[in-house]
Structure formats: structure tokens, C-alpha cells
Amino acid sequence: MAEPTRIERTDDELIAAVLKGDPASFEPLVVRHSPRVFATARRYARRESEIEDIVQEVWSKAFQKLPGFRGEAPFEHWLMRMAVRTCYDFLRGHQRNREVSFTELSEPETDWLDRFVAAPDTASDESSAARQLVGRVLAMLSPPARLVITLLEIEDRSVKEIAELTGWSVPLVKVRAFRARAEMRKCLQRIARDKYL
Amino acid sequence: MNLTGLQNKLIDAAKKNPPGDQVPYAFEKRIMARLAAVPRFDGWAQWVRSLWYGAAVCAAVALCMSVWSFAPDDEQELAANFSQDLEQTILPADGAASAW
Description:
The complex is a heterodimer. By secondary structure, chain A is mostly helical. Chain A is built from 9 helices and no strands.
């Protein structure tokens, strides 16, 4: 027997249903967009419990602010703006937990650095040691620097997009990007000094 | 050490290893349960609550004013003394100035 075809409702239809008083229609939105929100949160938090807290916070805010969604941009963009701002709030709230030194570099990380110093081309950027090391460097940056480096350098977003996501002005994004690069270089300088001098 | 090279290499490493997008099992059920537990915003209830707050503040102010009005009036006495003192200070000085 053939199953009846289920027509998936669009985001706009689901939002309209929620606003008319059917909160159950919010669930398909959560199912549809959670992977992207989780991927975003994983860029800024390490522990899975923190990541889940961030995502829950994003969905709570989205539900509360849904009456203010005007539908001018896709729901996903609106949600990602909320996700980025929630991640930034998380970073600011956990500033004190930032890593401050490189004394605990793991053996693979040290090996990778040695290989990079000896011959930069032989150090693969796909290795897990490189991934761990970049995570460590990002964890040392201040919240605005980490956010800008992640969005601009790692996710390759434009300055205008970052301004929209963060709510900062375009000149402020540029200033923060300049400072963020300098801050990252300072962190790397500290590695070089601690390890090779 | 080539710091710019290292910076670029690490950024490339982060680009090539994007974080996973897996969602914990039944996460949406958890979200829906959490949303159901949060009381929905009721504008009317909010308005009534703020009216009650306003009424309480007004009652407190009225009480303070009535207590103040029954309190012994030291300030009037002080004001009378002050005007006399001022007169005594200014008039002799004025007289002295004209004599001089």
C-alpha cells in the first residue's frame, strides 16, 4: 500500500501557525535548523554540555522573539544572527576561563610545531594536531577577536555579512578584524617565545 | 619562526576541519518541553501587575507624606531664626558701611 505523501510545510507556514497559537508547529523548525545552530555553537564552545546550553538558549530566544520576525529575510538568516549573538554572549560570559599559556601543549601539537619550524610545507594542515592547536589559539583570544577571526578568516564571510550577523557597524568590524589579527599574531609569538627561546 | 605562515596554516587547518553538525537524540523534544514550561508572555497580566506596583508605590509615598506632615516642625523655627540672624548680620554691616 502506498504511503500518503507528506508535504513539508515551509518555514513561513510553520511560523504563521506558531503565531496563530499552535506551538507544536515550532518543532519542525527546530528539527530543520538545529544542525546549523549546533555547528555554529561548536565553533565557540568545546564542552558538549555548553554547546547544548547555547543551542537551547538560541531556540528559547527564537520562540520568544518570533512575533518580531517580519519575514523580510529568510528565517535561517534571522536564526543565525541570534545564534552568533548568543555565542558571543557565551564567550563574554566565560572570558575568565580563557586559556592564558601554552605550557600544556600536547605531544602531537609540539611535534607538529617542530615540523612546521623545520619545513613549513611538510606540516599538514589537515592533521588533528593542527586542529587542536588552532583551537587552543582561538581559546586564547578575546571574545570580539575570536568572533571576528572565526567569521572573517575561517568561515570566509564578508565584512558586511559580519556586520549584519553581529549588529556591529562596518567600520567597527574592520577595526576589530585588524586588532584580532594582531592579537592572534601576539598569541603565536608567545608560543614561539615559550617554546623556542 | 614565520608567524604569518603559521597563522595562515592554522586558519587553513580550521577551515579544513569544520565542526560537526550532529544533533543529540530527541533534542527537539527537549526544546519543546522547555518552551512549554516557560510561561507565555501575557500583555494584559503584565499591565495589571504594573498597575498594582504603581498603586503600592503611590500608597507608600502617601504614607510617608502624611507621617512627614505630622512630624514636629523644626524648620519653621529655624527659618525664623535664620531671617533674624541674616537681618542682624546685614544691617550693622550696612550701617557701618554708611558711617565709614
